[in-house]
């Protein structure tokens, strides 16, 4: 049997951290994942996937992820049900995260929201933002002494 899910998307809101009565951390958040196609109006639609993370991973997610951050989640699909206050059976499908990767730093995300995209043709402010492939494939002069093999 195999139950693996890998998603890449953006958080729709800040993660919500809670603790069980026994003190186990649990964080819930929703990931907006774009679909590969557009609708009849030419707009791209997204699926909103509920994610649950437990223990140390839950605390890391709650501490370091914020609304809008690009994130990868690896985990398993889980379905469960419970009875709500009105006595109705409610079914829930969610991804239980085993691994969460932060795909952009908070600094990079704030730049992207302001319109200054990483790798743009504007002059970069520091050397870490320079595009190493900006020469479009022109030869690089490296001596044999610089090679590690």
Write the layout of secondary structure elements.
Blueprint: E1 5-11, E2 16-19, E3 25-38, E4 44-54, H1 55-64, E5 70-83, E6 89-102, H2 106-113
Parallel strand pairs: 4-6
Antiparallel strand pairs: 1-3, 1-5, 2-3, 3-4, 5-6
Quick rundown:
12% of the residues lie in helices and 43% in strands. It is mainly beta and 149 residues long.
Query: For the terminal residues, how far apart are their CA atoms?
Result: 44 Å
Structural class: mainly beta
Query: What's the CATH class label?
Result: Mainly Beta
> N-to-C SSE series?
EEEEHEEH
Assign the CATH architecture.
Answer: Beta Barrel
**Unreliable residue stretches:** 114-128
Strand content: 35-45%
Number of strands: 6
User: Biggest sheet: strands side by side, in what order?
Assistant: 1-3-4-6-5
Q: Characterize the biggest β-sheet.
A: 5 strands, mixed, barrel
The general outline is extended
Count of separate structural domains: 1
Cα-based radius of gyration, to the nearest Å: 21 Å
Chain-averaged pLDDT: 82
CATH topology: OB fold (Dihydrolipoamide Acetyltransferase, E2P)
Helix content: 10-25%
Annotated CATH homologous superfamily: Nucleic acid-binding proteins
């Amino acid at each position: 049997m195999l139950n693996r899910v890998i998603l890449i998307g953006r958080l729709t809101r800040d993660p919500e951290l809670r603790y069980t009565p026994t003190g186990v951390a649990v964080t819930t958040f929703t990931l907006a994942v774009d679909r590969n196609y557009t609708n009849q109006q030419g707009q791209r639609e997204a699926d909103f996937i509920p994610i649950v993370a437990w223990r140390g991973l839950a605390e890391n997610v709650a501490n370091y992820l914020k609304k809008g951050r690009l994130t990868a989640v690896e985990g398993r699909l889980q379905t469960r049900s419970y009875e709500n206050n009105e006595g109705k059976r409610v079914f829930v499908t969610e991804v239980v995260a085993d691994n969460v990767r932060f795909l952009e730093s908070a600094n990079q995300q704030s730049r992207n929201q302001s319109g200054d995209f990483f790798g743009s043709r504007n002059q970069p402010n520091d050397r870490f933002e320079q595009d190493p492939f900006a020469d479009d494939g022109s030869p690089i002069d490296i001596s044999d002494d610089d090679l590690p093999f």
